[in-house]
Amino acid sequence: MNAEDAERYVSIPLDRAVEAARLLESIVISLDRIGSRMAGGNADAHTLDRFMTEWLVGPRLSRARSVLWDAIAEVLGEEAIEEIAESTPCFPDPIPDELRTLREQLRSRNQEQLGDAWPTTTSPPHFV
User: Which of 25, 69, 77, 120 has a CA positioned 20 to 30 A from the CA of residue 60?
Assistant: First the structure.
């Protein structure tokens, strides 16, 4: 992506945008709740696994991703989105710098909100 691309726009039909936004809302809020419960000792990795499995998180995120990629492909073309997708880091790749920066921003924000109550361990930050 280059500076010229920042001036270009993609269009998503409203019903598909709402569907993707609702799906993301559901997953983000659920993950935040699970993270809070885990931090409080009321949930564990099994809880997260149960959510991922029962709520079909992978397939649902794949549908939301398709909504975005379809719209982007209309502007950039299939070859460009394949190139972007292939260059996107995924687990278990090393954590990208932008995620390290985001983690620090979230940690600082949570620490400001919670003050001395913020644990010094690597507890998961709240997403919302």
Answer: 77
